[in-house]
Write a structure and sequence with these properties.
Blueprint (H helix, E strand, L loop, with lengths): L1 H12 L3 E3 H6 L4 H10 L2 E5 L2 E4 L8 H10 L4 E2 L2 H7 L9 E5 L11 E5 L6 E4 L2 E4 L1 H7 L6 H13 L5 H11 L1
Parallel strand pairs: 5-6
Antiparallel strand pairs: 1-3, 2-3, 4-5, 7-8
Helix pairs in contact: 6-7, 7-8
Length: 175
């Protein structure tokens, strides 16, 4: 039972998600994860990704789960970053997750892995690895109306997600 308490603490900090790797670090054996799935305490969401069965959902759960499903060094990218922050009135059909590695595992249709651009700056919003908002706005220039992106940049600047220099640069590019 002590291991499950440790797993619960990890998952509580990660939107109800725990990976097999994090569980191993906490001292839980794979057989314990299987037992907890059988008991109904955990739900298997994908290869090495589990979710607490009893968890109060938040607006960020799907984003955290998508990043965990894609794997190590993955992060939110493009439209997913804008959607997570409620910018540019976007509602993508799939959560775009960038990764530097090739993804061979089967993913749900609502997760779209993309190749991570070399040298891209990343950060973390609400504890979820992510592309920086200014870079996400820039990467969506081909798929979102410029007026919406300009409004998104203004809103992001007002919320402190974009610096003054980044806002000025985006304003010039979107004008």
């Amino acid at each position: 039972m002590a291991h499950f308490d440790d797993i619960y603490d990890i998952a509580a900090d990660e939107y109800g998600i725990v990976t097999a790797a994090r569980a191993r670090e906490a001292g839980a054996a794979p057989s314990e994860l299987n037992r907890w799935c059988t008991d109904g305490r955990l739900l298997r969401r994908g290869h090495g990704v589990y979710k607490l069965a009893r968890w109060v959902p938040t607006p960020y759960d799907a984003y955290a789960e998508a990043v965990a499903l894609v794997g190590d060094r993955a992060y939110l990218h493009g439209l997913a970053v804008l959607a997570m922050h409620g910018l540019a009135l976007v509602d993508p059909r799939a959560i775009e997750v960038a990764t530097p590695k090739r993804v061979r595992r089967k993913l749900p249709s609502w997760v779209e892995p993309v190749a991570a651009p070399k040298g891209e700056r990343t950060t973390s919003y609400e504890g979820i690895p992510s592309q920086r908002v200014a870079d996400a706005i820039e990467s969506c220039m081909d798929s979102v109306i410029p007026a919406r992106l300009l409004e998104a940049a203004k809103q992001a600047h007002g919320e402190g997600l974009v610096t003054a220099d980044e806002y000025d640069r985006l304003e010039k590019e979107l004008a």
